[in-house]
Write a structure and sequence with these properties.
The chain is α/β, with parallel strands linked by helices and 341 residues long. The chain is 40% helix and 13% strand. It has 12 helices and 9 strands. The strands form 2 sheets. The protein has a 6-stranded parallel sheet. A 3-stranded parallel sheet has the order 2-1-3, with helices on both faces. Helix 2 packs across helix 3. The radius of gyration is 23 Å and the shape is globular. The chain starts with 11 loop residues before the first strand and ends in a 7-residue tail after the last helix. The C terminus is likely disordered.
């Protein structure tokens, strides 16, 4: 299993300001003080041109120049770690320019914790934390770079506990954004094997009259009813009928000790049954892997072949084509002159 590359001794820390720069107090003094400490520890620095800038409106510089800085410093081979100087409130403004230069589309899912985050003992969690999360989500979703939501966190509860929240998301798809994706972590815990089928059930039972099935993705799907049993075969039919996409992240499964026997991994069964499957990295920074590593792992450890990978690639290609078509239609309407259509 690969581990992420750590900052080496006497390594170089790069600083960029894709949103806020350290041009005013107390940020400037705090930034300089941090440099002194790191310098005493033997580290060097590489400053982007916007690290101390503040000429932009609520952002260090123009979005174009911030994107240029980010692209340049991200690609620097002599920088071991890249750190943002300040907050990210307007970082989204640089994304169109990153995309136009690199061709990389960056999109986000808004995470909703399935259980309260209690790792910090001083953090007082509201009893309405899920309600508050949903309210924030509805605001953040106005960004064109947010394309869906994801129920995250340790899978220790029955997914039906989240049905009221899932219902709100289904209503949001129906009333506001039909392209919104509902993603749910399910099937990671072998003691909750019916969470995958219950996730789909929660969505279908939340549909409004006449509403088609929204875009649904399930993360992992490792543990379900026996797929060769009557209940398992019913699940396969449901997954296919409702166009559900299963996302697999092998490194994450192994590192989190959710999978100890590779022979139990069901991805080949899903692919052979015509279920839509894709691969992901699920935190590539934590596990030190990328999509190529994940593909090699699936090939070498789970015996996936080129036909399997083509099936998985087609799922993403079809989704991208559909989104590009919607973008094209939107642009046609946005650019039409009065009197057209």
């Amino acid at each position: 299993m690969k581990y992420g590359k750590f900052l080496p001794e006497n390594g170089t820390i790069g600083f960029v300001a894709p949103s806020f720069g350290c041009n005013i107090e107390p940020y400037r003094s705090a930034f300089i003080n941090a440099q002194k400490i790191w310098e005493q520890q033997g580290y060097g620095f590489s400053f982007g041109p916007n690290a101390y800038e503040g000429c932009g409106i609520g952002i260090s510089n123009t979005p174009q120049k911030c994107a240029e800085e980010f692209n340049d410093w991200y690609a620097k081979e002599d920088v071991d770690v890249l750190i943002s100087c300040g907050g990210g409130e307007l970082m989204c403004e640089i994304l169109p320019y990153i995309e136009s230069e690199t061709g990389v589309k960056i999109r986000f899912l808004v995470s909703l914790r399935r259980i309260p985050l209690t790792i910090n003992e001083d953090n007082i969690v509201s009893g309405n934390y899920l309600r508050e999360n949903l309210d924030v989500l509805k605001v953040v979703n106005k960004s064109p770079y947010v394309v869906g939501s994801d129920f995250v966190g340790e899978e220790i509860n029955d997914i039906t506990d989240l049905k009221p929240a899932i219902k709100e998301l289904v209503d949001y798809v129906n009333d506001v954004d039909p392209d919104f994706t509902i993603r749910i972590h399910a099937g990671e815990n072998d003691s909750l094997r019916d969470n995958v089928s219950k996730s789909i059930q929660c969505v279908t039972e939340s549909l409004n009259p006449g509403q088609p099935m929204p875009k649904v993705r399930l993360g992992h799907g490792l543990y379900t009813e026996d797929l060769s049993s009557p209940k398992g075969k019913k699940l396969l039919r449901t997954l296919k009928k409702d166009n559900i996409v299963l996302e697999f992240q092998l490194s994450s499964n192994v590192r989190l000790n959710n999978l100890t026997n590779l022979n139990l991994h069901p991805i080949k069964t899903y692919l052979n049954a015509g279920i839509k499957c894709v691969q992901g990295t699920d935190g590539c920074g934590f596990y030190g892997i990328d999509t190529i590593d994940e593909q090699l792992a699936l090939q070498n450890l789970l015996n996936l072949d080129d036909k399997d990978f083509k099936k998985m690639r087609k799922v993403e290609d079809d989704d991208t084509l559909e989104n590009d078509l919607f973008d094209l239609i939107d642009s046609m309407y946005d650019n039409r002159e009065e009197g057209d259509i």
